[in-house]
Amino acid sequence: MSPDIWNRFEQQVRKRLTPIDASWRVEQVNGVIRALGPSPSPFDNSVCWARVDDTNADSVIRDQVSYFRDLGRAFMWKVYTGDAPADLEARLLRAGFEVQARVTLVILDTMRPLPAVRLPPEVELRRVEDPSGLVPAMDVQREVWKQDCQWLLDALTVEMKTQPDVLSVFVGWAGSRPVCSSWLRIEPGTSFASLWGGSVLADWRGRGLYRAMVDARAREARQRDVPYLFVEAGDMSRPILERIGFQVLSPVSKCVYREAQGP
Fold first, then answer.
1. Where are the beta strands (DSSP E) in the chain?
2. pLDDT tens across 69-108, in order?
3. How far is Cα 110 from Cα 240, in angstroms, rounded to an integer?
4. How far is CA 190 from CA 12, 78, 79, 224, in A?
5. pLDDT more than 70, % of the chain
6. What is the DSSP string of 143-212?
7. Over the range 85-98, which residues count as b (16 or more CB within 10 Å of their CB) and which as e?
8. Is the pTM of this model over 0.70?
């Protein structure tokens, strides 16, 4: 992957955040860019980028821990290849963080044609046209991940109502049953869109549904003149994505500090 793509991603995505709605805010303080969302979860609160090096990393980490702890919030700090200092992850772990997940940032040039994929004849992939259609999409997420997704339903409902040009949600239907769901988020003012969700019910896997959702979202991004798609891929999805043309941009360590842990 071209260094130019990484530079664009860092400048346009990591350093240029747009609040999703009024319940979010983005702060830039002393070389640190952080996002604060509506809940105390580390999925809603994060250090997105920080100007740190060997001389100041530990003090910056302490300052951010203190800041979020005073707010009573857990938060996430993602570490990418090339982030300084080279031992940033180790420093975060020493400060009380834990690695919540290790994923891989992969990216697709939307002008690149994807391999043909054919859905089973009994499945129809539909774009959600209004917020009421988000309920079956979240039913899939709930069944796949065995988690209460009410918070996600609430967040996506607000986002679809307030920024309808940003969010595109897709649901695959087998008759009256939703069997897969995913969504595309356009990053306003950038060259990028991001992929989310990407979930298929267990008894429908291995039949092209995941690939069909990627294809649908890539086509929409291309129609919207968005050059690049990116996604943080786990171990299950990364091989599929690489086979259809995504390229690795960086491994990512999702380091989480939980307020109750202490430093």
1. 25-29, 32-36, 45-50, 75-80, 98-109, 123-127, 167-174, 177-186, 192-200, 228-233, 247-257
2. 999 999 999 999 989 999 999 999 999 999 999 999 999 9
3. 16
4. 6, 20, 21, 12
5. 97
6. HHHTS--HHHHHHHHHHHHH-TTTEEEEEEEETTEEEEEEEEEE-TTSSEEEEEEEEE-GGGTTSSHHHH
7. eeebbebbeebbbe
8. yes
